[in-house]
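Q: Structure tokens for this one, please.
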Amino acid sequence: MMSEVAAADWAGQQVASVRDDPAGRLALMERCYHGPFDKAPRHLPFRRAAMSFMGWQLRRGVLRPAFAERPGSPWWRAVNERILRDGCEAVGLSGGLRGPASSPTAEQWLSFAEHPTARAWYRAHNGSVVAAYLENRDLAEAENETERFFMNVVLCRVLYAHALVAAPRLSLGRLRPLAALLGDPRLGMTGIFLQLSRVLPDEYPLRDSVRSHLDREIGFGRLLDFGVIAPRLQQLYEWSARELAQPGLLDCVRDGALVYAWPYEDRYVWLPPRSFLIRLVRRTLPPERTGPQRS
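A: Here is the predicted structure, written as tokens:
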């Protein structure tokens, strides 16, 4: 790398080169985990969760270019691009390109590059995700109702996975000794929290109603969303806003209902369905009042 080149400019060039190439986006993300000199053995295991989720986006077709016969989603493309750009900039900075970091989220990726821990990865990844959500809300509003519903599901799940690692008492209550293991992005179990393929078909745009998709979701996904995460939503978003230094995240939740590109008046969709198992999980793992969390 040439040190006279600004890392932010170099990152922008890298992302622009794959903007209309979904497979190229995937390859670029993978290259970021190899570092600037292709020698980053401590970083490589963290690519598991990111690559798995991005692979799901490719299968759905949301990253297809605007000129494709079946165009992708402007919103999903923008969110993915923000993550790529921040990650590439951190690679450039760690490889000797000029700084400083152009944004707090790029700085978080650089911190992860220097000290690759699970908590640092979540701060970087989720920081980019939240920043992208907030700066592209207008694109989100243009999506159909079902897509907007699942944007909220994706966000609360990635925030919850972070809390498993960094705020175990908040995320899992009395079972908090298991939280770090369940949330570690280097392990395959994290994919469970981000996995929506059992609910959503591999297509874009979604055609069925929100209710029809909810009726399909059974088993772990339903228990997780309604039994564990839903009772903690307000606490989770408040903690995440502090952890990620993203106060705007609080505009995505209201009185325990998710309201990112979603009307508060339609908050009934976040109410739990009648289920003995969901009631049992809520009684077994009630949310606890939490103070400062330890990593």
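A few notes: The mean pLDDT is 91. The chain has one domain: 7-284.
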